[in-house]
Amino acid sequence: MKISTKGRYALRLMLDLAEHQNEGFVALKDVAERQGISKKYLEQIVPLLNKSKVLRTTRGYQGGYMLAKSPEHYTVGDVLRITEGSLAPVSCLDDDVNLCDRADTCMTLGVWQGLYKAVTEYLDSITLQDILDKGHSLAADEYYI
């Protein structure tokens, strides 16, 4: 499994909004500047996040985006599923019911199920708030003489 640019940038967008949540609605151009991401690319990602109801939006002069819930309610897994679709390492695990004709006799199915479980449990265990907290603690530990 390889996470696309869309997934990585969506996570950075969500983290930026989480970090600036006290500022109200945040303009996409500000996120683009801070993150070094094209505003046009972010404009392609926002509809996916809007459709999943993880963002609140407003138009006009003070328009922009903010998280619909607080950062501890969103996991990395949530964001990646919205942008990447399934996180399954093989297509036969994409659906709740395995429709593969070989599922009953497949000797490697357990390997893929184990990988899928490890990946999803890991990504679902990390919230946006966890990442912000870790980033802030790293910055606090740095000092210069």
Can you characterise this structure?
- The protein is mainly alpha-helical and 145 residues long.
- It has helices at residues 5-19, 28-35, 39-51, 76-84, 109-124, 128-141, and strands spanning 55-58, 64-67.
- 52% of the residues lie in helices and 6% in strands.
- Strands 1-2 form a two-stranded antiparallel ribbon.
- α1 packs across α3 (39-51).
- The protein is elongated.
Low-confidence stretches: none
Largest sheet: 2 strands, antiparallel
- Estimate the mean pLDDT confidence: 91
Using only CA atoms, what is the Rg?
Answer: 18 Å
Helix/strand structural class:
mainly alpha
> What is the percent of helical residues?
40-55%
- Spatial separation of the terminal alpha carbons: 43 Å
* Secondary-structure element order, N to C: HHHEEHHH
* Strand-residue proportion: 5-15%
Total of DSSP H or I helical runs spanning 4+ residues = 6
* Overall spatial form: elongated
According to DSSP, the number of beta strands is 2
Order of strands in the sheet with most strands:
1-2
